[in-house]
Amino acid sequence: MKPGIHPQYEERTVKCACGSIFTTRTTNKADIHVEICSSCHPFFTGKQKLIDTAGRVDKFERKYAKQRAGKKLQPA
């Protein structure tokens, strides 16, 4: 490797919105702020937040109900 062309690889503090703080190594010159980390992400915690998809499905069904009804009546 050529000397003097590579950025400094240093330890930086990562702060999450949940309050968790940890260190990592990076070439970034400032501390890092993240919205989600392994301490609060559902994949790592095992807790899943339920998202209201039922309302979205109902809206979709109502939107395309007429098109479905028309296709069922047409012979194949």
Structural summary, described in words:
The chain has helices at 42-45, 54-73, and strands at residues 10-16, 21-26, 32-34. It has 76 residues and is of the alpha+beta class. It has one domain (10-73): Rhinovirus 14, subunit 4 (Irregular). Strands 2-1-3 form a 3-stranded mixed β-sheet, with no helix packed on it. The mean pLDDT is 81.
Question: How is this fold's topology laid out?
Answer:
Blueprint lengths: L9 E7 L4 E6 L5 E3 L7 H4 L8 H20 L3
Parallel strand pairs: 1-3
Antiparallel strand pairs: 1-2
CATH architecture: Irregular
Radius of gyration: 25 Å
- SSE-based structural type: alpha+beta
Low-confidence stretches: none
The CATH class turns out to be Few Secondary Structures
Strand content: 15-25%
The number of domains: 1
What's the total helix number? 2
User: Would you report the number of β strands?
Assistant: 3
List the helices and strands in order.
EEEHH
In CATH, the topology is named Rhinovirus 14, subunit 4
Average predicted confidence as pLDDT: 81
